[in-house]
Every structure is written in C-alpha cells, then in structure tokens.
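Progress note, sequence design subtask.
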C-alpha cells in the first residue's frame, strides 16, 4: 500500500459521521488517514471523539472573523497545514464561499440527508413526509458552489412507512449515512473515485446521475 490519503474532517456538532469513519479505519486496511478534525464550535462533541482516537483537533470560531471570506481564508490555512488529499464536511454548519469551494475542487465531499436533487437545504425529513414520498435517504456528493449541488457519488435509500415521523426517519437516515460516507472516503482514498469536470467517476467510469445506489 502506498502513502496514505490525508483526510481533514470539518464538523460543527456531535460528529457521528466522523465516528463512523474512525470506526471504519480501525476495522480495515483502507489507505485513508484522518490527519485532523477542525470545528467552528469549541463545544462540538466530535472534537472529543477525535481526541479519543488520537486525531489532532483545531477550533476556528467563525464569530471571531469580520465576514465569511475572512473566516474561509483562515480555514483554508488551517486545513492546508495538514496537506490534505481530501476534505470531508461532516455536519459542518457553514455555507462556504466560492473561493473555498474552488480551492478544494475535486477533493471536497459532503453528505446531505435527502435523495438529491430533492430537498436541498434544511428540514428534509419533514418535507419528505409532507410530500407523501415513498422513499427517503441520503446522498454523498462532491461540493460545488451550488448549495447541496455537485456530482453525486453514492445514495442510500429507505422506504417511508405509514408510521414514520420526522424523528424516526432522521434516525434511519443517520444509520445510512454511517454506511455510505466511510465507503465514499475509502473509494477516494483508494484512487477509485474522482471528479472529472461535472461528473463523478468510479474506476474510470462515469457514475449515473444518482451516483451508486444502495437500498437499505
């Protein structure tokens, strides 16, 4: 196995997806290595998860900066100190500037709790129920300047049942996130996943518009 794929993970909260990635690294021979976890909130529990796993952490409080551009500029400096091959947004509750997104083009992944392109933005579970959808899920995608846009890598799908609430859907979708985000990280670290223009490529083949589909 060659040099590890350096990964920097950005968080704002509990870091459950981060934990899923940490667990996946401990269990297998993936060439990924989480070099650092950076949060914009000092009270994010994900920082504790990282520290318990021996991963360096940093806090960059967005409230200490004059504007979004100044914060993102400082964030780029903090991230690039670890020479990352891949940057992962794992519950990082900040809208990123176009300059930040361009800086990491092709090596910036996000996860969203809906079957994109449906339900970009917030309150996805409630919106699925209100629409009467038969299916719900989550999506890993490359990040572009469009909010929750970018080429889809992998989606996990679950059926919506008559008794579902926003809370029950959220719990199920979280479990799916913990399956597909470590998978996408591994694909990238193994050199299998790339962004070519506007298309996500897996093993040199363009993925379908929905990415790889996994049904729960």
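Output:
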């Amino acid at each position: 196995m060659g040099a590890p794929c350096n990964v920097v993970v950005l968080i704002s909260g509990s870091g459950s997806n981060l934990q899923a990635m940490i667990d996946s690294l401990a269990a297998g021979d993936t060439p990924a290595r989480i070099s650092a976890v950076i949060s914009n909130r000092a009270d994010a529990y994900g920082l504790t998860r990282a520290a318990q796993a021996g991963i360096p952490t940093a806090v960059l409080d967005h409230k200490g900066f004059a504007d979004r551009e100044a914060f993102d500029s400082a964030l780029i400096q903090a991230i690039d100190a670890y020479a990352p091959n891949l940057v992962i947004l794992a519950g990082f509750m900040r809208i990123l500037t176009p300059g930040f997104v361009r800086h990491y083009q092709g090596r910036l992944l996000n996860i969203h709790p809906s079957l994109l392109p449906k339900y970009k933005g917030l309150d996805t579970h409630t919106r699925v129920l209100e629409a009467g959808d038969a299916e719900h899920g989550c999506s890993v995608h490359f990040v572009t300047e469009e909010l929750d846009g970018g080429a889809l890598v992998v989606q996990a799908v679950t059926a919506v049942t008559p008794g579902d609430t926003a809370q029950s859907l959220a719990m199920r979708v979280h479990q799916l996130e913990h399956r597909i985000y470590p998978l996408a990280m591994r694909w990238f670290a193994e050199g299998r996943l790339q962004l070519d223009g506007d298309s996500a490529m897996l093993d040199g083949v363009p993925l379908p518009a929905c990415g790889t589909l996994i049904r729960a």
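The CA atoms of residues 120 and 148 lie 6 Å apart. Work on this subtask will continue into the next period as scheduled.
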